[in-house]
Amino acid sequence: MAQSHRRIDSTGAIAPPPTGIKVGALSLFAVLGIPLAVTYSIPFALASIFSNTSGAGQGLSLGVLNLAIVIPQMVVSVASGPWDALFGGGNLPAFVVGAIAAAASGVFALTMLPSPPPDVPVTKIESTRSTTQP
């Protein structure tokens, strides 16, 4: 599809895409950016909320979360090239390792992380209001 819309100008250079293609690409990325922004911001918001309610330091909690995100990215960027070359240059081995790591992380998260404290029941709040009001 992109090849059929490619244009070459009089100097032989590739001309920019038509306006419709630019608008379509910009619209697609704008719509896809909304869930991506949520994906980037929600973990940090939840970490600050949970660390604040538990009495832990927010800075330390956010720093640990940031390291938990950055260190695996650095390991993958350094090791994925040689890992792919070891298996003939395809990306499939790296995806298999990623899938195994994601499954292991899910199991660890469900078994090792502490559960957040339960919410205060609404009936308890209502009973304290009724005893304090005449």
TrEMBL record:
Superkingdom of the source species: Eukaryota
Membrane-spanning intervals of the chain: 25-47, 59-80, 92-113
A single GO cellular-component term on record: vacuole
Lipid bilayer topology: Multi-pass membrane protein
A molecular function (GO) term: sucrose:proton symporter activity
Keyword check for Membrane: yes
Keyword Transcription regulation assigned: no
UniProt entry keywords in alphabetical sequence: Membrane, Sugar transport, Symport, Transmembrane, Transmembrane helix, Transport
Record's subcellular location: Membrane
This protein's name: Uncharacterized protein
